[in-house]
Write a structure and sequence with these properties.
By secondary structure, the protein is α/β, with parallel strands linked by helices. It folds into 4 domains: 2-245, Glycerol-3-phosphate (1)-acyltransferase (3-Layer(aba) Sandwich); 256-343, Non-ribosomal Peptide Synthetase Peptidyl Carrier Protein, Chain A (Orthogonal Bundle); 350-677, Rossmann fold (3-Layer(aba) Sandwich), CATH 3.40.50.12780; 777-872, ANL, C-terminal domain (GMP Synthetase, Chain A, domain 3). The radius of gyration is 32 Å and the shape is globular. The protein starts with a helix and ends with a helix. Residues 247-266 are annotated as: Disordered.
């Protein structure tokens, strides 16, 4: 009864929008009506209901649907009401899916043999192009083998591609939203006057289908019939008085996976290969192998891969069609898949772009980060200050509301120090502030440092709880990251959030609008953050930064860089990196700069697209991450950028050259910083740019360049050790057994940076880390200088990750220079390049070691401690 009622109402309702023309239908019953397998292309989500309305009277076919029609509540209900038989999905049936699918297909074959008719969509998923790709379809061949003699009728739906219910926009349509919009358009057009979309439904019997052949042969014939006269993507107006003529639109880009599979970590590569070997039976798995043509996967295999990817690595891939090769799968396992769900950016609200010119960008006075934050928030509580694709845009009032909810929860955590383990995100910024308001010192956890370093650091400062989220933990565990050091200390915010009552949230929202007196009375801890160094020592050094340290650094930065009222910052550096904590986590909140976050700094393509979407004017990053963005960005992506701030390592010339050539309006400000200095020490100025230099020291930073031998100031142009002092310099490590980094010079205490610089016409030029020099033949040999010469010759422009690194053995006298390479560089070739660069024979490489991947830190810098461990055989 429900079935008949829906069909009776559905036909006239569909015709309010669609003008349906059928062809070939009258010829089908001439040979009889029972035992027909109708196979249709699948341009939209309304196809089953449109065809059901046309076929029900004479053929009453059993509708067979895939997961596209179980994705939303309206479709699930309609499919159930129409008696549809869904194909099994691994999300519901797990390891039993293949067995249940075989049983279901056998049941379909029996229905056909008994005289029932079936309506199926052999593409098994919503079309992503105007034509159907059936290469991975195995269901039709399986049914025909079990029901020989079945009549096959192909149904071509033309004119629907481009509908709101299609994926022609590049994203999967939201059924409920589109139904509501459609109802609104119907009412606006007084029901009967809505412009009609011309739809052609063509029926064609396929007598030459090789029913007993393999799936490839069957699919080739079906594709030829289904794709004949495929109609282009067409827009049909929705209002009778507007845009009267339909028009053809360009085809959407094919879903794809972008990146270089060589950059995939070895442990991820091995896990993917092992899984493919297990599910395909192929022992030799190569990056270029096609998942369907070479490895034989079908639609179900694709779906199982999609679910396995999300379970194993935490990265969803909503469109298995984007996974074509093994290389695509390797990249998808690192989050590089551009699918309909991931590739479509959420719309950016208009409030993000709104600026109040009467509010200057300046930092209020105050002695603590919470105090300054509250003063800035009170200037304009409704001002948008941060955003990301997961949480949307947040105003100061939204941030205050979240802090009021979280503050009592964090106050109840044991201990004065609480770990914070999150990537760059709006949530990380809010949680950092909430910890300070709760009187807790945030300890920024670097999960890339290794389990031993994490455990040592957390135990050193007495951290009993580490705040994180399940998605990050699951993803890291899937990537074989050892989290045993934090596992027993985790406080998962998504789990805690489910226990927060609606009344608590409403109360916080009300207080955020009426007054913040409870926050004014909060006592911030003396230490604003604890970070850990990632040097070559056996244990990380714990660096406590006070509110005064960080506030002094931010005030200096605002004098060096002129931030504008309409500035929009792109933030991707993790908070456990001092550069990211100060410049993209704390600074924007205290100045009122809008900042948009993306959690993975290695996803260059996504970062470029976010810069375009949010019209970012300022990008902060390390050269490694910046280079990754520049290599994959289209010209339009970075047009809005005004300033690029580069730090943490020397900015290579190709980054300068690429920006100058493709985005000449963008200014590169290279700087220099150290975790212990909060972290910025010097930076180039817009009015005095010196490419290749690290600029002038900040206003409050006193500095001296000292000769290593004499301990006296050097002459301008001569290299020496950089000493600094000032309010942004920390007071000392928390490690009890670490040697003091301070020394007395000219009667005062200075921080010894460990870096060699020289002064050139008023600016500083970085020479390298002292520990990255070795003494050979009485001469100080620079390992970075050797790396730079070799990189210019062997590092390709398209390579994001480093392909080589130079280290020295640990002998005090006459150490060997070792070249670690993933590019197959020969020793003679390397030394020829070194000689051509004008370096002496002392710089010659003694040994070349080929490795799978140059190890890197979470900041993108080469992990020289890991390379040292390879030389000594000790754990990193």
């Amino acid at each position: 009864m429900i079935d008949s009622l829906i069909r009776a109402l559905g036909r006239p309702l569909l015709r309010l929008r669609y003008r349906i023309h059928t062809g070939g239908l009258e010829a089908v019953p001439a040979a009889g009506t029972p035992g027909i397998l109708f196979l249709a292309n699948h341009p939209t989500l309304v196809d089953p209901f449109l065809l059901g309305a046309e076929l029900h009277g004479r053929f009453a076919p059993v509708l067979v649907v895939g997961r596209d029609h179980g994705a939303s509540a309206p479709l699930r209900w309609l499919a159930w009401a129409l008696g549809a038989r869904p194909l099994p999905d691994p999300a519901d049936h797990g390891a039993q899916t293949r067995e249940r699918l075989d049983l279901e297909l056998a049941a379909h074959a029996r229905l056909l043999a008994s005289g029932r008719n079936l309506l199926m969509f052999p593409g098994a998923r919503l079309a992503r192009q105007k034509t159907q790709d059936l290469a991975d379809n195995s269901a039709v061949a399986a049914i025909l083998r079990q029901a020989p003699g079945t009549r096959v009728v192909v149904v071509r739906l033309g004119g629907l591609w481009g509908s709101r219910f299609s994926a022609a926009s590049g994203r999967r349509p939201s059924t409920g939203v589109e139904l509501l919009k459609g109802l609104g358009y119907l009412l606006a057009n007084a029901l009967f006057f809505m412009p009609r979309r011309e739809v052609q439904v063509t029926f064609e019997e396929v007598p030459d289908l090789p029913a007993g052949a393999d799936r490839e042969a069957v699919n080739r014939v079906l594709e030829a019939h289904l794709n004949a006269d495929a109609t282009p993507r067409t827009f049909v107006p929705y209002l009778i008085w507007k845009d009267h003529a339909p028009r053809t639109l360009p085809e959407p880009p094919r879903p794809r996976v972008e990146g270089n599979p060589r950059n995939v970590p070895p442990q991820v590569r091995d896990a993917v290969r092992r899984h493919l070997q297990a599910v395909t039976g192929h022992s030799d798995i190569q990056e270029h192998h096609h998942l369907v043509k070479d490895l034989g996967l079908d639609v179900l295999g694709h779906r199982e891969l999609e679910l396995w990817l999300e379970q194993a690595f935490g990265y969803p891939c909503a469109d298995p069609a984007s996974l074509q090769t093994v290389g695509d799968l390797l990249l998808a396992a690192t989050g590089a898949a551009v699918s309909l769900r991931q590739g479509e950016l959420k719309a950016v609200p208009h409030a993000w772009f709104h600026s109040r010119t009467d509010l200057p960008i300046e930092m209020p006075d105050g002695d603590s980060i919470p105090e300054v934050f509250l003063k800035q928030a009170r200037r304009d509580p409704g001002r948008v200050v941060l955003a990301d694709q997961l949480g949307g845009v947040k105003t100061y009032r939204d941030v205050i509301t979240a802090i009021l909810v979280l503050k009592p929860i964090f106050e109840g955590l044991e201990g004065s120090h609480v770990g914070l383990m999150l990537p760059a995100s709006g949530g990380a910024s809010i949680l950092y502030l909430a910890l300070l308001f709760a009187g807790k010192t945030p300890v920024l956890v670097n999960w890339t440092a290794g389990v031993r370093s994490m455990a040592y650091g957390l135990d050193l400062v007495g951290v009993k709880h580490v705040i994180s989220v399940s998605t990050l933990i699951n993803r890291l565990e899937a990537q074989s990251v050892d989290l045993s050091a934090v596992k027993d200390r985790l406080v998962l915010l998504d789990v805690v959030g489910r226990r927060i009552s609606l009344a608590t949230k409403l109360s916080a929202a009300l207080r955020a609008r009426l007054g913040w007196t409870s926050l004014d009375a909060s006592a911030a801890p003396a230490t604003a953050a604890v970070l850990f160094t990632s040097g070559s020592e056996s244990h990380p050094k714990a660096v406590p930064l006070t509110h005064g340290n960080i506030l002094a650094n931010i005030r200096d930065i605002t004098q060096a860089i002129r931030f504008r009222e309409d500035e929009r910052v792109m933030g991707c550096l993790p908070p456990f990196h001092a550069f990211g904590l100060t410049t993209t986590t704390i600074l924007p909140m205290l100045l009122g700069l809008r900042v948009v976050y993306h959690p993975n700094p290695t996803e260059g393509r996504m970062l470029a697209r976010l810069i375009e979407a949010y019209h970012a004017t300022l990008l902060v990053g390390t050269p490694t991450f910046l280079g990754g963005i520049l290599r994959v960005a289209e010209d339009r992506h970075l047009e809005s950028l005004r300033i690029v701030v580069s730090g943490a390592e020397k900015c290579p010339e190709p980054v300068y050259a690429t920006l100058a050539r493709r985005w000449p309006k963008t200014t590169v400000l290279e700087g220099y910083g150290i975790t212990e200095c909060s972290p910025v020490v010097s930076v180039n100025r817009e009015e005095d740019l010196r490419n290749g230099s690290i600029g002038k020291p900040l206003v409050s930073v006193e500095w001296a360049i000292v000769d290593l031998e004499t301990g006296r100031r050097v002459q301008p142009g001569q290299p020496g050790m950089l000493l600094v002092r000032g309010p942004s310099i920390f007071s000392g490590y928390l490690n009890p057994d670490v040697e003091s980094p301070f020394e007395t010079f000219e009667g005062r205490s200075w921080y010894r940076t460990g870096d060699l610089v020289f002064q050139d016409r008023g600016v500083l030029v970085f020479s390298g880390r002292l520990k990255r020099f070795v003494k050979l033949g009485g001469e100080m040999v620079s390992l970075p200088a050797i790396e730079e010469a070799l990189s210019q010759r062997f590092q390709g422009e398209d390579e994001i990750e480093p392909l080589l690194a130079v280290e020295a053995t640990t002998e005090d006298l006459n150490p060997d220079l070792i070249l670690f390479s993933v590019a197959g560089i020969g020793r003679d070739d390397a030394n020829a390049v070194i000689r051509a660069a004008g370096l002496s024979s002392l710089h010659n490489i003694r040994v070349v070691r080929q490795i799978d991947q140059i190890p890197t830190l979470g900041t993108g810098k080469t992990d020289y401690r890991a390379l040292k461990a390879l030389l000594t055989g000790e754990p990193a």
